Amino acid sequence: MSGWNSSELQVFCNSSQRFLQPLWDCVRNPDALTQSPFFLVIFGITTYVVFCLPFVVLDVLYPWVPALRRYKIHPNFSPTARQLLPCLGQTLYQHVLFVFPVTLLHWASSPDRLLTEAPELLELACHVLVCLLLFDAEFFAWHVLHHKVPWLYRTFHKVHHQNSSSFALATQYMSVWELFSLGFFDAVNVKLLGCHPLTVLVFHVINIWLSVEDHSGYNFPWSTHRLVPFGWYGGVVHHDLHHTQFNCNFAPYFTHWDRLLGTLRLAHAK
Ligand SMILES: [Zn+2]
Ligand SMILES: [Zn+2]
């Protein structure tokens, strides 16, 4: 006989909740940085820069490490300091001027920090997956619209396409409208699903990682699209094709929307 009875399921849920409880206790510690009104913006910038950093180091080492060539999507391209620094500068500037006031409002209006119990592991995993699928669908619709309407493309999305060969720090090189749109999709889904604040943090970390990986310019054996079966996940090679060809692969992560609407273009395996 397969399947669990209700008491076994209850035991599993309780143990998975206990598994996350120490982490949640650290997060909601009244003396921790997490309680600061600056936390969300510092968390967002730090996570982004930490995820970009290994790829920046690889780009710096690239001319002296020939073994990296086989993983580089554009072997003859390596970003220069004149490309890297404006991207980093724009991210910092936009976070201080635009993201910080929004996260401050969110902090002031959010009583969730007072929750004492951690989420269950299974609930956290399901919520993160659903948030990713919803974010993917919303950004797909936004992205198609901003490519099909020339005014929208010129005014709001063109800036993200300035780097046709992308690199990690170009991930958040975008207009303020695009940044807010992504932030809105990011925030509305966790609200709709009633996600636990710890789930929200985990979702943000995964979302930032996947977006940085999409723009990294490196196709490694452990890249996410190689770990997800049946070609369901496009990842770095798909998004790189979008940056070089403009008219395909509009979804940031998964492939089903582009497949359904005929805009999926497959990259040649490397
Ligand atoms: Zn685009
Ligand atoms: Zn992009």
Describe the model:
- It comes from Trichechus manatus latirostris.
- InterPro entries: Fatty_acid_hydroxylase (IPR006694), Sterol_Desaturase_Related (IPR050307).
- The mean pLDDT is 89.
- Helix 2 (39-61) packs parallel to helix 7 (197-215) and helix 4 (121-148) packs across helix 7.
- Helix content is 61%, strand content 0%.
- With 270 residues, it is mainly alpha-helical.
- The protein has 10 helices and no strands.
- The chain has one domain (32-260).
- The protein is globular and about 55 Å long.
- Bound molecules: zinc ion (2 copies).
- Residues 143, 147, 157, 161, 242 line the site of one zinc ion.
How would you classify the quaternary structure?
single chain
Distinct ligand kinds: zinc ion
Mean pLDDT: 89
* Low-pLDDT residue spans: none
Principal-axes shape call: globular
Give the count of structural domains: 1
Would you list the SSEs in sequence order as H and E?
A: HHHHHHHHHH
Helix/strand-derived category reads mainly alpha
What is the tally of helical segments? 10
Strand residue content: under 5%
The amount of helix comes to 55-70%
Determine the N-to-C terminus distance: 45 Å
Radius of gyration: 20 Å
The total count of strands amounts to 0
Biggest sheet layout: none
Short descriptors:
binds zinc ion, 270 residues, 61% helix, mainly alpha, globular, single chain, 10 helices
In short:
This protein has 270 residues and is mainly α. 61% of the residues lie in helices and 0% in strands. It has 10 helices and no strands.
What is the strand and helix layout of this fold?
Layout: H1 6-27, H2 39-61, H3 81-108, H4 121-148, H5 150-157, H6 176-193, H7 197-215, H8 224-227, H9 235-245, H10 256-260
Helix pairs in contact: 2-3, 2-7, 4-5, 4-6, 4-7, 7-9
The protein binds zinc ion (ZN) (2 copies).
